[in-house]
Amino acid sequence: MNIKVCGVTTFKQLQQLDGLEIDMAGIVLVQDSPWFAGDLLDGKEVCKADFDLKKTGILYNPSLSEALDWIDKYKLDVVQLNGTEDPSLCDDLSTEVEVIKTFQVGDSTKELEKLLADYDAVCDYYLFTGNSQSTSGVYGVAFDWAQLQTLRIEKPFFLSGDIHQQQAGAIRKFSHPDFFGPDLTRLFEISPGEKDLKTILQFRQQLR
Fold it and tell me: CA 20 to 30 Å from 98, out of 45, 56, 119, 157?
């Protein structure tokens, strides 16, 4: 089971999450977000570090040049696109890093399945969350995971949307051939950007 923790804002917490064997750490690079890390994380320090986790830049409708600048600043391994980015941008970025495309799950999974088909060739992962008006680039809202059960996804995908510690058992039981792991956001922190490492560790142990 892979675990992604989103909203990291300090170098120390990148180190700590790496020590906890977290698989991906999300660095929010959306300026109007309370989790914006672009002014807090020293790019040179991050680039020099040897992490096993994948540094994942969270972006919202970036231009190609903006995305490439962030990739270069932090030597990102993955880019997560949380807006309405089209497949061509995913394709361009996929030559540089792995790409996660976020989708909000509404009432019509048939429409979602059609939409996914346009991204299959240009993304490495998907992330599913509930419908949200937020543009902060970090989290969506909870949704009924059963909506994904009959969906043809054919890419490794993350479940997101206000996942909390008490859902570890439900996540273990969730069955889909392409399920990759949970995305942990604001319910695993003390304040924006300050991760609750004890709770994350407990959750990881409950999953494994």
Answer: 45
